[in-house]
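Can't attach files on this board, so I'm pasting raw text. These are the components:
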Amino acid sequence: MTVLLAADDVRRAIARIAHEIVERDPDPSAIALVGIRSRGDALAARLREAIRRNEGVELPLGALDITLYRDDLTRIGHAPIVRTTEIGFRVDDRVVVLVDDVLFTGRTIRAAMDALVDYGRPKAIRLAVLVDRGHRELPIRADHVGKNVPTQPGDDVRVHLVEVDGRDEVELVQAGVPV
Amino acid sequence: MTLPRTEPGEGQATEARIRWQRRHVLATDDWSREEIELVLQQGEAMLEVLARPMRRTPALRGRTVVLFFAEASTRTRVSFELAAKALSADVVNVTVSGSSVEKGESLLDTVRTLQALGGDILVMRHAASGAPYFVAERVASAVINAGDGWHAHPTQGLLDALTLRSALGDLAGKRVVVVGDVLHSRVARSDIHTLVPLGASVTLSGPPTLVPMAWRCGQTPRGVDYEEDLDRALEGADAVIALRLQRERQEAGLLPSLREYAHAWGLTEERVSRMRPGAPVLHPGPMNEGIEIDAAVAHGPRSLIERQVTNGVAVRMALLHLLAGTPAEADPGWQGAEPPAMSRR
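---
Top answer:
Structure tokens for the assembled complex are below.
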């Protein structure tokens, strides 16, 4: 098991992404942050706080659950649990930044984009992730990345966040290597 | 009266701790509290889908839901149809004239036809108690009971629980009055089997002739009691559910007259004010206004009757989605409880 990001690295990555998001779209009032449950929503809340401190603007914040948009209902062998989606603002003509912890195959992001367009027609959808571990199965890429990590497909990237797990840390558990 | 909501970032708080294993929804009398709470929590998530500008998600795309109603129904059938369509399932309606499926043998024929249609989920209503159990043993589809005779109407019990919980919060320690024709009411049975596991107590009220003999003699199930006098039953109650007086099921002699029934057990404004302030009024519909419920109560500030309709769609979406994710080998059907004997009632 390797520690990819320690607590300070997570903090710096979020601070940098917060700056990048605003640099990319100079009119911050058109931006909204939508985190993908269940760790992307915590990251999105932190990004909003960082942007509020830096720029003095409070971006709209939403949380998206993609369960009803998954493409593997018959494959996973049990009923997936749907969590509440909360998007309390109109997405039309906004730049919506999707936020997730790990970008892997891209299937979650595909589902999230399908879900998001059911709420309206965003001006643009961007993607911010804490870790990009490669191995895409769909033509999807991130606009803002905390850390790029080369991995094997069987590896496990574990993101721990204070809000969910009590500590900030990202670990890589390599396939076939005992923990 | 807002739904319990979590802040974005608190996703984990609503994470269910159990895994759904059931293949069929036949009655809630053998469900654990955790299973009931899971369905209610999933129903709350589905309410958000129903509030969107685009009320449709692709979750059940390519799945077929067969609606087989061998007994009159409008709102339950339409509710299931809306639920299935909000999840992008294909819907096939099979309506059968009452007489052709009243015997066990012809039900078996119908089952074979339904089997040939190849639906993934079969939603059925039947006048015979136990019919969905009979069908669940013989089809490959998942089966949802949309009402069987006097026995059970599990989705009604669940939607009533969802409605009460959004109005009252945690139901532990709450007392709910169920008034009316308890004897013939599958709604009353399913309400009991949903609300009691959630910690509520149920006070039944109604004419002694329309309450099962054992229950009116004090041998009520756990968490349930019977109080003939509705005024006394309502005193300090947290909610009331009025049952429809099922005129089509009345056998001669059980009721003196509709007028007398309305006088003694109809919900009036004066009566509902005996409950706690703001205590809600529910009714499964369709209502006989002026008999079991006054128009002023049905359309008054305490009424959650319209909310029940929306919650019904949400609960049914939750069940369809849960069943669609359960593999066929997961569950033989029911656990523990004996299926009711097939009976013509």
